[in-house]
Amino acid sequence: MGAHSIRGRALLLSTDAKLTPEQIIEAYGERWSIESMFNQLKLSWGLKEAWQQTRQTLHRWVHLTLVGYGLIQLLGYLDDQTVRQLCCHSPWRKDNPTTAGQIRKGLLLIFHHVPVRQWWNRKCRKFEPPNWRGSEQDAAISV
What we know:
Elements lengths: L20 H10 L1 H12 L11 H21 L5 H6 L13 H12 L8 E2 L4 E2 L8 H7 L1
Antiparallel strand pairs: 1-2
Helix pairs in contact: 3-5
């Protein structure tokens, strides 16, 4: 069998009847650059669990999630020793490649103990992280 042989038949559907089969396949192939982003957002960044109560809360959740996703992607392009150290958590990986996924895993190892979900006060519907500076009075003085 040759390199271009067809193993079976396929049905190609398109809303643009002017496209050739090759153009339909090429257009479909271009989708995958964005499909991987949606896959990562749903499975790795928690968007599949975005069941918040109001539209405003959902918008805030999506915006914060996308900002975090974008920052990790940008860190992947930064040629910096600190960023490279985030990727050293998998010693079996050859040359420890600096990728957004490896950076995310490195950050998760650093921040896995931070109980962010516990900081949400359901009663008053406010985000209340603990005061890490010391007493309430010290925090008021430094502000």
